Amino acid sequence: MMSSDHNRHNERFVRQCDVPKGQFKGYVKGCIAALLFSFSALLFVTTASADEVIMKNGDRLQGSVVSLSSGKLVFKTAYAGQISIQWDLVEKLTTDQPLEAYLEDDKTLVGKVKTIDGENLVLEPADGSPPVPVPIAQIETLGPAKTKAGWEFTGNVTAGASKESGNTDTEKYSLIGNLQMSKLPHVVNLYAEFHKEWSNDTLSKDNALGSATYDRFLTKKWFVFANGTAQTDKFKDLDLLGNLAAGAGYQFWRSPDLNLSARLGPAYAYEKYTRPMAFLDNKDQRDYFAGYWALDFDMWFFNRLFQVFHHDDLLYDFQESTNWVVRTRTGVRIPMVMKLYASFQFNYDYDHQPAQAKKNYDQAWIFGLGWAF
Fold first, then answer.
1. What pLDDT is recorded for position 149?
2. Are 365 and 151 in contact (CB under 8 A)?
């Protein structure tokens, strides 16, 4: 009975569609074939629109160019993620997306890469003008063209915590954050760190550091900068060590995989202690003009297996040569999953003229988990 009703329902459906009863199965097969063909065509179009790398050994990769710098092509594929390729092993590169090439003479070219002609990349400019051969040796970095004119934000936040109880009773907490905002020729860097520790319910560490730096690039390498830094440390009897600095800087390298820059200029510094100091004629504060130096470095190793970073800055009193301060921050970040990473950081601070009865150095080993953005 159910089979008879089902057959009558199919017959009505066939009549409504104006498809002869004997051709219904063929009609369904044709629809399925058409759908499969359309889907295959869509896949073909999607694949055909990808960037392509052909290696000298004949291997062929499809995906998208992430960057080219320091002799390494970073290429993103759907099946292996980002991979790093030795540039001298590449036979041919073509891109469907416009790329931006930064040259040694501070020029910038935007266009699609059509081929490699000997020692040149052949770019097809975005404005439709004839292809341009660009000497590969003159390309400092190559990456996707920036379509947004707004500010770009990058950075990371690292947190560490530990708690022990029983024969040992301690609590430790640390928080470190970096934020870079860039819209060339303007770059703003913000940095902050906080550290607290208790031992047997007694506070045994309490310090913080923050800095803000503004860079204004005049050329691809040279820039002027302004910096403000403030530090406080309860166990150094230091309420505040602050400075304002300005001067000139030089960007040795700037790329997704390698960055190195240096800054040098005059500064105004201010110190405030929790109690009067003999070396300050029993005063608890002083201000002075100083020289300021800073170095920033970061680099990825082994196909982004881990990143090494380093920062140091020096404040040198022009009026009293025994008064100078050095701060260093050195560490390693190891990517885990998503944008999470494990971090190890070593902090070393040296004050050649510390508060009375205090050591002139502090060092800390900080382990934590972080998130990059």
1. 65
2. no
Containing 33, the helix (H) or strand (E) segment is helix 24-48
**Rounded Cα gap, residues 338 and 342, in angstroms:** 12
pTM value is 0.72
**In this predicted structure, what is the pLDDT of residue 194?**
97
Q: Is the preceding peptide bond at 185 cis, omega within 30 degrees of 0?
A: yes
> In sequence order, what are the beta bridge partners of 199?
170, 202
Count the neighbouring beta carbons within 10 Å of the beta carbon of residue 262: 14
Degrees, nearest 5: CA angle 59-63-68:
85
**CA 176, CA 347: separation in Å to the nearest integer?**
12
The count of C-alpha atoms lying within 13 angstroms of the C-alpha of 263, restricted to the half-sphere facing its C-beta, is: 27
Instruction: State the Cα angle at 270 between 265 and 272, rounded to 5°.
Output: 155
What's phi and psi for 42, nearest 5 deg?
A: -65, -45
How far apart (Å, rounded) are the C-alpha atoms in residues 144 and 112?
10
**Mean pLDDT in each 10-residue stretch from start to end of the chain (373 residues)?**
47 46 51 49 48 91 88 87 88 88 80 80 82 85 76 95 91 97 96 96 96 96 97 97 98 92 98 96 97 97 94 97 97 95 98 96 96 95
Closest by Cα among 220, 312, 303 to 262: 312
How is residue 146 annotated by DSSP? P
